[in-house]
Specification:
This protein is an alpha/beta fold. Helix content is 31%, strand content 23%. It has two domains: 159 residues, Leucine-rich repeat, LRR (right-handed beta-alpha superhelix), CATH 3.80.10; 42 residues. Strands 1, 2, 3, 5, 6, 8 and 10 form a seven-stranded mixed beta sheet that branches.
């Protein structure tokens, strides 16, 4: 009997502690799971919130994006949420991504964020203090698990004026060979040219698929005429 009473008291105490330590859901965001993670779409990005007054950029929803810009914050139901993190695999597979402008004052960029982005050429950051690369409560990664190793040679980091040496001395960022405070020449023109070429190829693919469909229908009709 005493053992039963002791167990009941322990369960009640645990419940009280959990209730006292629980955080109220942040207003303005819709929670969609038992882990109380809110998902918010804003433009081409999907953001996540874990009972906190800030958000993580979880996913880029447009895998064909050429030029992307991460905002300082997003607004949901009348409230602003600063973007402080780029999530795990956020841009992974965005093979056309060429220029990324990060207006957000990031704290961290997680593993896999820019893997499989072979055309990435410019990353513009607004942080005067470099964000950490690959650091997480449950796992840690090196800079070349956030970026591809060849990005150290092919990507130009554009940082705030006077912060070039800060980035050169920062873990991971110092691996990049091209760190400067001005945007490279003709980047916008190159991006426009790439986007135009993508549109042209996509249009040709649409026309080709329609042509294939017509040819397949004609082939089926010929086959049917033989069996009739």
């Amino acid at each position: 009997m005493n053992t039963l009473r002791y167990s009941i008291v322990c369960l009640l105490a645990a419940a009280i502690c959990m209730t006292a330590g629980a955080q109220e859901p942040q207003p303005g965001l819709k929670y969609d799971g038992l882990d109380r993670v809110a998902r918010v779409r804003d433009g081409i990005f999907l953001y996540g919130n874990w009972d906190a007054p800030q958000v993580t950029l979880d996913t880029c929803l447009d895998m064909s994006v050429v030029q992307a810009e991460i905002p300082v914050s997003i607004r949901s139901n009348g409230r602003d949420y600063p973007v402080l993190e780029i999530g795990h695999n956020a841009f992974n597979g965005c093979r056309n991504l060429t220029v990324l402008k990060i207006n957000a004052k990031l704290d961290n960029i997680l593993k896999g964020a820019f893997l499989n982005c072979p055309n990435l050429r410019v990353v513009q950051l607004s942080n005067t203090v470099p964000p950490t690369l690959g650091q997480h409560t449950y796992y840690h990664g090196n800079w070349d698990e956030v970026f591809e190793h060849y990005h150290a040679l092919t990507v130009v980091l554009v940082v705030p004026p006077g912060c070039e040496e800060v980035y050169r001395q920062a873990p991971g960022w110092g691996e990049f060979k091209n760190i400067q405070s001005t945007m490279p020449d003709n980047v916008e023109l190159k991006v426009d040219a790439i986007a135009a070429r993508i549109n042209e190829v996509e249009s040709r693919l649409v026309r080709a698929r329609k042509e294939v469909e017509l040819l397949e229908k004609e082939l089926d009709a010929l086959k049917n005429s033989i069996t009739e």
